Each structure stands twice: as structure tokens, then as C-alpha cells.
Amino acid sequence: MNQILEIVRDVSSWLWGIPLISILAVTGIYLTVRLGFFQFRYPVYMFKQTFGSVFKKPKGEGTVTPLQALTSALSSTVGAANIVGVPAAIMFGGPGAIFWMWVIAIIGMSIKFSESVLAVQYREKNEEGEYVGGPMYYMTKGLKMKWLGVWFAFALMIELIPSIMVQGNAVSSAVNESFQVSPLITGIIIAAVVALIIFGGIKRIGKVTEILVPVMAFFYVGAALLILILHVDQVPYVFNLIFSNAFESMAPLGGFAGAAIGEIIRWGFARGLYSNEAGLGTAPIAHAAAQTDHPVRQGFWAVMGIVVDTLIICTATAFVVLSSDVWTSEGALDDPASLTTAAFQYYFGTVGGYLVSISLIFFVLSTVVVIIFYGVKQAEFLFGNKTSQMMKVVYLAAIIIGAIGGAKVIWQFLDLALAAILLPNVIAVLLLSNEVKKLKDEFFTSEHYYLKDIKQKQAKKAS
């Protein structure tokens, strides 16, 4: 058995190295060019159509508001990776990895945009009158390849079991370390709280995440921002570290072992892609339920998800870790996951450690809530509504099993399962890229959408 697990680890490590990172990077570049560099041409317009319109009544039909769809999608991507993944990228790739994390985030916007546009375009209503969509629907209806949709849905439904176990273990470990509470008790409490939310469907999930995500992001990023304000003199130092080491190999320094340019780029790309999940096809499941008058308008919200997740939250973590110099301390390479806690403790003392632990708990809780929703939608697509309700129980049990560290053997298969989801989705997005381009061109040339918005803006200025 140990030999099999070693092979699985080796294959996973190779697959999530150059092969998959290259596929995602090339896909992102291709879609960016195919869609006319839209993320570079319309950033201000996209911001105004998303966060700039949160107090306006949403246009079109849908089950949840566009903001609720975004916060639901963000609940999945904003998690432990934002807190423990960024220092790992710094330790193995150096500060320059952060620059490449930004690069792949901007390129990945085209993938996230395309996924979400297709999810809205090919969505449908379920038995309960809720809008449902995602890769399994655009594979079935757009590509006419139901077998590919079934593959994606089944792979995601199964993959989420070990994924939820890992998340449950992360939160129980954090609670046990900070507050000395039994992992079993933590697992039961988390499962009970999650049950109250998920049995209310996407509307309740949307209402919870609409409050939870902004609060937890403000709580964590706000603390990092306070550090930045109090130590603004460190900003030039941090930016110099990032940019000066982005294009050249870095020599060993304190606890940092040094990194070649290839490793710097690889770790930056990997962190950006793992964090914002561009290409995995999960976020489009949430965006498909949004109220919108055009698929492209909801695609803008998906782009904002990358801005919040990677460009803001991951960057906040990077600033605190780099400015505190904890990454250069002896033994830092032995436990990169603890560096964020060490960095906040450097600035805030014991309170900083609690701040990171509490943030991690809420990040993981929100992640579990939404990925269970994703899994339930796969079961609904494959087997109907009754089976999807049964899967909720399976996923809740996975939280408790993971919290106590059970079934760790199947955790080793997590990366392989993720690849089984990512590959069919990337193939589908590329094959349907003409449809995305057509919808994007329609939005920006039609008198009903972009041109109408611009004319209304000009009319306001004139008055």
C-alpha cells in the first residue's frame, strides 16, 4: 500500500508541476488574446459594473444576486491556501514568486471569465425553480458531449470527499492549537453549523456568504492593512524584494534555501492558480445562479473574484510575511505553513496568532459550505434531487472524519482527482471559446448593454 501511495504522490507532484501549470498558462494566454485583452481594456468599467453597482437592483433573471454568487464562489477559493500557501511559495520560490502569482492571476482572469460566461449561457432551472449550471451543463448542452459532463460531475462529486476531510482537519487543528478543544467536538460543531446553512439551498448559502466573506476578508486584510500603514516605510523594501528577484535566481538567505528562476516562476504560477481555482470549473457553478441580463456581465463578477482572492488577500499575506522577515529566520523552511502566524505574532504578539487562527477557521468554514453545495449540484445533475440530499449527509460525515484525522490514505489521491476535473473543463472551455468570443462581442457592440451603459454615463455627466 505504501508503494502505491508513493507512486500516487510522485505522479501528483509531476502532474501539478510543469504539465498542468503549462496547460493553464497557455490556455489563459490564448483566451486573453482571443477575447481581445478585455481585462486590460475595461478594468474600470468592470469594477463599476460589479462592486460599483452593489446597491443597485440586479438586472435580469436568477436565483441569487450577482454579489451573492460572487461571495459564494469566493467562499470556495478564499481559504487555507491564502494563509498557508503564500508563505510556502515564498520559501520554495523566493519573494519573486509573488510577481509571477500576480501575472498568472491576470492571465487566469480570461479562464475564469470564460467559464462563468458559459455557465450562465447554458444554465437551466431545476425542480425547485432554482437556476443551475456549470461545466457539466455547458459540456452537455454546448458541446453535445454528455459523457464529458458526466465525467466532470462524477469526478468532482467524489473529489470533494477527501477535500472536505482536509478542510475539516485544518480547522480542527487550528482550534486545538489555539483553544485546546478536542478535534471530535470541533468536527461535530462545524458539521452542525454547515448543515444549518446547506439545507437552506443556494439562497441561504448566498445570504450567509454575502455577510461572512466581506467580514472575514475585512478582518484579515484589515489587519494586514494596519501593519502596512504602521510600517509604510517597509513598502519599498517589499516591492524591491518581489521585483528584483522575479527574473533572476536567488541565493540562500537565512532560513531560505535559494531558488532558480524556473522554481520562482513555477511556485508563483502554482500559488496563483491553486488559490483562485481558474480552470477547475467550480466557481461557475455558483455564478450560474446569479441574476443577470447577459452572461458577460456575470463574467465580470468572476474576474473580480480573482482580484479579491489573489491580488488582494494573497498579496496581503505576502506583505506581512516579507516585511516581518520571518521567511529568513532559521528553520523557516521546516514549516512554511506557520510563517503567516509567526509574521502576525511579530507585529501583534499573541493576539496576532489568534487573529490568524480565527481567520483560518472562518475561511475554512465558508469553503466547506460552498464546496458541499458544488458536490450536491453534481449529484443532482447525475442522479436527481433525492440523491443530492443524501450526498449532503455524506459530506457532513466527511467533515467529522477529517477533523479527527481519519481516512488520511485517500487524501493522497486529492491532486489526481483535481486533475480529473480540470482537464475536461479546460478542454470544454477551449472548444467553446468561439461561443465566449461571440457573447463578449455581442455585449460590447450591442445597444442594450455596454453602449447603453456608456451613453447613460455620458448623459449623467452632461446633466
UniProtKB/TrEMBL annotation:
Family: Belongs to the alanine or glycine:cation symporter (AGCS) (TC 2.A.25) family.
Keyword vocabulary terms for this entry: Cell membrane, Membrane, Symport, Transmembrane, Transmembrane helix, Transport
Lineage top rank: taxon: Bacteria
Positions of transmembrane segments: 14-33, 147-166, 178-199, 211-230, 250-269, 300-324, 344-373, 393-410, 416-433
Localization terms from the record: Cell membrane
Entry GO terms, CC: plasma membrane
Protein name: Amino acid carrier protein
Species: Bacillus weihaiensis
Gene3D superfamilies recorded: Amino acid/polyamine transporter I (1.20.1740.10)
Keyword Glycosyltransferase among UniProt keywords: no
Pfam families reported in the protein's UniProt record: Na_Ala_symp (PF01235)
InterPro entries per record: Na/Ala_symport
Membrane topology label: Multi-pass membrane protein
GO terms for MF: amino acid:sodium symporter activity
